[in-house]
Structure formats: C-alpha cells, structure tokens
TrEMBL record:
Residue spans crossing the bilayer: none
Top-level taxonomic group: Bacteria
Entry-linked SUPFAM superfamilies: NagB/RpiA/CoA transferase-like
Protein name: L-lactate dehydrogenase complex protein LldG
Pfam families: LUD_dom
Domain LUD: 110-207
InterPro entries cross-referenced by the UniProt entry: FTHF_cligase-like_sf (IPR024185), LUD_dom (IPR003741), NagB/RpiA_transferase-like (IPR037171)
Organism: Geodermatophilus poikilotrophus
C-alpha cells in the first residue's frame, strides 16, 4: 500500500522523466551584515518591542537578577519559583532558586507551569526572531510552547543581522523553533488574540 505522499512524489518523478533539468539557484543575496554589533542589538530590541515582547538589557554579571526581573515582568510580583521550568542546559547562575529543571515529563504536564526559562541558538536582528534549536540550552520544543510565559536569555554574540547569516549557525536537522514575539493571531476582523499557539508573554534578557 502506498501513501498519498509516495503517490504524489511518484507522479512528479514520472513527469520529470530521466533527464531532469539542472536548476541553478541564485545566491547573490546578502549573507553578512556590516552594521556594528551595538546597532544590530538596537534593531533586535526595536523589532521585539514592536512585536509586543518585553526586553531587559544587562551585563554578563547581572543575568540572574535580570532573569528574576523578567519573571516579575511576565508573571507579576510574588511568582512561585517552583512554577518556572528551566531548560537543562541553562547555567546555574541564570536560574531562580527553586526553579524546576525539565526532566522530560509528559508534555501535558508542562502546561501547569507558569513560565519557562531558556537560552537560544541564534537571534536575527532584522526580523526580531529568536531561534531555539532543541539543544540543552534551548530545551525541547514543548517547554518553550506550553507554559504561558517564555523568558529567553540572548547573548550579544548570538545576534546576527539577517536570515542568511543565521542559517549556517544552525543544524538543519535540529527541531528549530523560531519565535518572533508572543504567540498571536488575528481573525477575519483583524482582532488580535495572543497565546493561541504558544506563550502569551515573551520577555527577553539581552546580555551585552
């Protein structure tokens, strides 16, 4: 028994025949960004805030305190550290005391957590996109999608200008999740609804 996918691909192969034309893909687009690093950070912040994300900037020695402030921003004062799930590769110094490391529990249980703390693989300034790659620092995809608040730590060296510059830094076989602001959609009347397909709140800790 063949699947619909196999049938469609078989028909395509038959239509193309044995002598398939060689397709040359033009690669003359810009692959690097010459803007200064500080300018790229400003572009990233501008895009993220335009998408209704919150951005807190800090130095490397202030990450832990700024993560706590980010959780205040996302959850309000008095949040419970036990309601925060952390990607397993997040450094100890970034973690709030009492936060729970992801232990591979069933995805349905993750929805009970109020917030998630992760790092990222790369950030794209021009599009305001954070890319999580499923590695230890980013965590598995479920932890970044199910809790209602997502806090991401972004280090300055992870920020690039555009998509062509970001892709070589990523494993094409990894389960990539690209986050551009809080999850949102609009209906036919253009009424914005947040939190439909992922976290309703995104807070970014930008370290530079």
């Amino acid at each position: 028994m063949t699947t619909a996918r196999e049938e469609v691909l078989g028909r395509i192969r038959t239509a193309l025949g044995e002598h398939r034309p060689e397709v040359v893909v033009p690669r003359d687009y810009r692959t690097t960004d010459d803007r200064p690093a500080e300018q790229l950070l400003d572009v990233l912040v501008d895009r993220l805030e335009d998408y209704k994300a919150s951005v807190l900037r800090c130095g490397p020695e202030q990450i832990g305190a700024t993560v706590a402030a980010a959780l205040d921003t996302g959850l309000g004062a008095g949040w419970d550290p036990g309601s925060v799930v952390v990607a397993p590769g997040v450094p100890t110094g970034w973690r709030p005391d009492g936060a729970r490391e992801d232990d591979g529990r069933p995805a349905v249980e993750l929805a009970a957590f109020a917030a998630t703390l992760t790092g990222i693989a790369v950030a794209i300034g021009e599009t305001g996109t954070l890319v999580l790659d499923g590695g230890p620092l980013s965590g598995r995809r479920a932890i970044s999608l199910l809790p209602d608040c997502l806090v991401c730590v972004v280090e300055a060296g992870q920020v690039v200008g555009g998509v062509p510059e970001a892709l070589p830094r990523l494993d094409p076989n990894a389960p990539l999740t690209m986050v551009s602001g809080p999850s949102a959609t609009s209906d036919i009347e253009l009424q914005r609804v947040e939190g439909v397909h992922g976290p309703r709140t995104l807070v970014v800790v930008l370290v530079a």
